[in-house]
Amino acid sequence: MFPYVRGGTFDPGRGGSPKAARHLGRERVPVGTPIECRRATMSHTRPQETHTSHPPNEGVFPYGWGDRLKAESDRRPEAIAGCSAAWRDPLRVEVDALMSDDSSPSTYNDPDRPAPIDTTRTHSARIWNYWMGGKDHYPIDRIAGDQVSESFPEIVDLARTSREFLIRVVTHLTEEAGIRQFLDIGTGMPTANNTHEVAQGVAPECRVVYVDNDPLVLAHARALLVGTPEGVTDYIDADLRDPDAILEKAAETLDFDQPIALMLMGVLGHIPDEDMQPIVQKLLGALPSGSYLASYDGTNTSEAYNEAIEAGNKHGDVPYILRSPEAVAARFEGLELLEPGVVPCPKWRPLAGELSARRGLDQYGGVARKP
C-alpha cells in the first residue's frame, strides 16, 4: 500500500503531531440559515475537477460524492442556488483555504487550520484515491499513479481489494459480532464505503472515530464524513506513533467499557519492526474483552510488488515495509483469530464474484477477538 505523509510527498509513510479532536457528528449550520440551505449542506460536496480516465471502479463504489451533489442540485436547484457559496460547497471552501497563498496570521496561526496543500507535488493519499476510482486527486497524482501502475498493474487491484476487505470486515463485525464502536487509525482519503458508512448502514447507532494526521485528509473529513443522526462520526488529528494521545482523544467519543473494533488497515507497514508490537499492544491493552483487531498490510510475496515499493520508498521520508505473511500474523498474537485466519485480503470471506485467480493477493489481513 502507498499511504502518505504530512507535507504532500509521494511516499508510503505518515508523520505529524497530534491535534485536537474534530467532532463531525454535529451539524454546523448557522442559526437562521434557511431550511433549504440546511438540507443542501448535507449534500456531500467536493471540488469539481477535470480528470483523466482511469479503470472503472468495478462496482466497489456505486455512488461518488460528485454524483451526490449533482443529484441534489438536479432535484432541488432552488435549494442549491439559494445558499451562499460556503454552504453550497463546504469542501470547496475548505480546500480553497488550504491552497491559499495568504500568509496572514489569521491563516497560519489559527490552531484549527491545517497546513496548506501543495498541489505541485505528488501526494500518495491522492494517488491511492485515484487507484481506487475516487475523485480527490490532481494531474500530477494521476501521472505518478499511471507510472506505478504501468510497471506494476496489480497496484490498482491491491487498492480496490483492500477496500472490499474493509467492507466485508466491518459488515461482519456489525452484523455478526454486534460491534457498535470503531476506532479506525490511518483512514486516508474518504471515498465511498468508508467505515462509518458501512457500519451505520447496518446499525445507525454506531460510533466511529477516524484517526489521521494529514491536512488534506482533515479537510475532506470535516466536509464529507458525516454520520447518521443516531450515531456519531468523529475525527482525530493524531499520529499512530503516539497511541496514548489517540486513546485519550478517542475516549471523548467511544465508551471504553464496551467492545471496540480497532482498525489498522494498511498502516502498520510504516512502523519499524521494533515499534510495531508495542504500539499494537498499547492500543489493544486499552480495549475491553470482546473487542476486535482488524488489520492488513502488504507482504513481500511478489517480486514486482517489492520493486514498486522500493521505488516509492526512494521518494519519501518514511518507508513502507513489506513483511512476510508470518510477520503480519504476529500482530494478532494473544487474540482469537476468526476463520479463515490471516490470508490474502481477497480470500477473507469473499463474496460471490470477488475472488479471481490472481487479484490483489499480496496484501494479507485478518480479524481477531480479544478474549
TrEMBL record:
| Keyword field | Methyltransferase, Transferase
User: What SUPFAM superfamilies does the database record attribute to this sequence?
Assistant: S-adenosyl-L-methionine-dependent methyltransferases
What GO MF terms are annotated?
Answer: methyltransferase activity
For biological process, the GO terms are: methylation
Query: What CDD domains has UniProt attached to this entry?
Result: AdoMet_MTases
Q: Which domain of life is it from?
A: Bacteria
The region called Disordered is annotated at: 1-24, 42-63, 99-119
Q: Name it.
A: S-adenosyl methyltransferase family protein
To which species is this protein native?
A: Nocardiopsis alba (strain ATCC BAA-2165 / BE74)
